[in-house]
Write a structure and sequence with these properties.
Protein ALTERED XYLOGLUCAN 4; O-acetyltransferase activity; alpha/beta; membrane; transmembrane; 429 residues; 4-stranded mixed β-sheet; globular
C-alpha cells in the first residue's frame, strides 16, 4: 500500500496519502477532543519513585562501569524508567558516514539539520547508572543468536540504531531483503555469527493495512498473530516488539472471524470500540502465541516489548516549527499522561501478565523496554523538517512536512538499545 502512513516509508514522500494521514491523526481529530473521548480523567503521575528504594551513589559513580545491578544478585535491578537527561561530551558512537543503514528520512545531519546539541545528552536513571552502549559486549552475549525486530516503523527505527552502533565494531552483511521499502530485511555479522532481522508488522496480529486499492481503513484480526514473522519463530532467539501509532488509524476489528467493532469508521454502521482494548488484545495474543509455541521447543526465547514512544507535534505538521525544540525537557517538566500513559500501561501490564505465564516454562524471558518517559522528554530528537534533505534551501516555504514521530539517527533512540543491552546483561548473569 505504497506510502500511506507517516509511520512507514517516506521515500516517495510527497504523495497525497502521506500528507493526508498525519492530518487524520493529528489534526482532523483534535487532540483535546481525542483525549477527552478516550481519557476523560487525568492519570495519576507515574513519576514518583519510592524513596525507600533509592540507592545512594558514591562519588565513584562517574565511572561508567558502575551500576548497582553489577553487585550481588539480591540487589534490586536498575529501574531505567525515570530519570533525567544530562549533558554528555562523548556524543554518539556513529554518524551518517560510518553507518550505511540509516533510513533516509532519519538521517538528520546529512539532511542539513544545523543544530547538533541534541547529540550530546545521556539518560541518567534516578537510581543507578546507564553505561554507554558497548558493541563488543552485545556481540559476546548474542553470538550465534538471531534477534528480530517486529512491529511498525518505530521497530525499524530502533533496529537501525542498533545496527549503526554495532557497525562501529563489525560490518553487517545484508543477507535478505524483501517487500516494498525494505520492510523485511536480515543482516549477518560474520565476526560473531549474529543475525539481526526486521519484520514489518504494524499490528503484530494478522491485518490488512488500508490502501488505495483495498479498504480505506485497517482490518485487524486480534486473535491470530501475523505469520509473516510468526512462521519464523522457530529460528529466533530474541524478539523486540514495537507497536502503537498504527492503532490510531481508522480500523475494523475481527475476533474469531466475526466483527468485534471498529475505530473511527463513520458510515460503516459498526460499534465504535476505540483502540486501547484492541491493542491490548493484539499484545496478549502475540505474547501468548510466542510463549505457547516456544514452551515445548527446548530452545527458549527472550522477548522485549518497547513501550509507546510519544510524538511531539507542537504546531501544524505541515508548517515550519512543528517540533522546534533543540533541548530535552528538564526533569519534572512533563508527565507521561493521557494517551501516552495509557499506551505505556497496556505494554507494561501485558508484559507483567506474560511473565507469570512464562514462568511455568524454562528459557522464556519477557521484559518491557519502558522508554515512554525518556522519549517524551526528547522533543528535540525528531527529524522535523529534516526528514527531507535541506528543506530550507530555498528559504522557508509555506508548506514543510515534518516528522515529529520518528527519531534522528544518531539520536535519543540509541538509548533504548543501551537499556536493552543492560537487561540482556542482567539476564545472562
Ligand atoms: C520502574 O518504575 C516505574 C515507575 O515508577 C514503575 O511503573 C515500574 O513498575 C518499575 N519497574 C520495575 C521493574 O520495578
Ligand atoms: C564520522 O565519524 C568518523 C569516525 O568517528 C569521523 O572520522 C568522521 O569525521 C565523522 N563524520 C562526520 C560527518 O561527522
Ligand atoms: C550461527 O548461528 C545460528 C543461529 O543464529 C546457528 O544456528 C548456527 O549453528 C551458528 N553457526 C555456527 C558456525 O556456530
Ligand atoms: C445498522 O446495523 C443494525 C444492526 O446490525 C441494523 O439493524 C441496521 O439496519 C443497520 N443500519 C443500516 C443503515 O444499515
Amino acid at each position: 500500500m505504497g506510502v500511506t502512513s507517516p509511520l512507514k516509508g517516506q521515500t516517495h514522500s510527497r504523495s497525497f496519502t502521506t500528507k493526508f494521514l498525519p492530518y487524520v491523526i493529528y489534526a482532523l481529530f483534535p487532540i483535546a477532543l481525542f483525549r477527552f473521548y478516550f481519557h476523560p480523567f487525568p492519570s495519576p503521575p507515574t513519576d514518583q519513585l519510592p524513596h525507600s528504594n533509592r540507592i545512594v551513589l558514591t562519588s565513584s559513580s562517574s565511572s561508567s562501569s558502575f551500576s548497582i545491578e553489577e553487585g550481588t544478585s539480591n540487589e534490586v535491578p536498575c529501574n531505567y524508567t525515570n530519570g533525567r537527561w544530562v549533558r554528555d561530551k562523548m556524543g554518539p558512537l556513529y554518524n551518517g558516514t560510518t553507518c550505511g543503514t540509516i533510513k533516509d528520512g532519519q538521517n538528520c545531519i546529512s539532511h542539513g539539520r544545523p543544530d547538533l546539541g541534541y547529540l550530546y545528552w545521556r539518560w541518567q536513571p534516578s537510581q543507578c547508572e546507564l553505561p554507554r552502549f558497548d558493541p563488543k559486549t552485545f556481540f559476546n552475549l548474542l553470538s550465534n543468536k538471531h534477534i528480530a525486530f517486529v512491529g511498525d516503523s518505530m521497530a525499524r527505527n530502533q533496529l537501525e540504531s542498533l545496527l549503526c552502533m554495532l557497525a562501529s565494531v563489525s560490518n553487517p552483511n545484508l543477507v535478505y531483503a524483501n517487500g516494498e521499502d525494505n520492510k523485511f530485511r536480515r543482516w549477518h555479522f560474520d565476526s560473531h555469527n549474529v543475525t539481526v532481522s526486521v519484520y514489518w508488522s504494524p499490528f503484530l496480529v494478522r491485518g490488512v493495512e488500508k490502501s488505495k486499492t483495498g479498504p480505506d481503513h485497517n482490518e485487524l484480526h486480534v486473535d491470530v498473530i501475523d505469520e509473516r514473522w510468526g512462521s519464523d519463530l522457530d529460528h529466533l532467539d530474541m524478539i523486540v516488539l514495537s507497536i502503537g501509532h498504527w492503532f490510531l488509524h481508522p480500523a475494523v476489528y475481527y475476533e474469531g472471524g466475526s466483527v468485534l467493532g471498529c475505530h473511527y469508521c463513520p458510515g460503516l454502521n459498526l460499534t465504535e470500540i476505540g483502540f486501547y482494548d484492541v491493542m491490548r488484545k493484539a499484545i496478549k495474543t502475540t505474547l501468548k502465541t510466542i510463549i505457547g509455541r516456544k514452551a515445548g521447543s527446548g530452545s527458549g526465547i527472550d522477548v522485549f516489548l518497547t513501550s509507546f514512544s510519544p510524538s511531539h507535534f507542537e504546531g501544524e505538521w505541515d508548517k515550519a516549527g512543528a517540533c522546534p525544540k533543540t533541548e530535552p525537557d528538564r526533569e519534572g517538566e512533563k508527565m507521561v499522561e493521557g494517551m501516552d500513559a495509557d499506551m505505556r500501561s497496556i505494554a507494561v501490564e501485558e508484559i507483567e501478565a506474560a511473565k507469570v505465564n512464562a514462568k511455568q516454562f524454562g528459557g522464556l524471558r519477557v521484559e518491557t523496554l519502558d522508554v515512554t518517559k525518556l522519549s517524551l522528554m526528547r522533543p528535540d530528537g525528531h527529524p522535523g523538517p529534516y526528514m527531507y534533505p535541506f528543506p530550507f534551501a530555498n528559504g522557508i516555504q509555506e508548506h514543510v512536512q515534518n516528522d515529529c514521530v520518528h527519531w534522528c539517527l544518531p539520536g535519543p533512540i540509541d538509548t533504548w538499545n543501551q537499556i536493552m543491552l543492560q537487561v540482556i546483561k542482567r539476564w545472562r548473569r
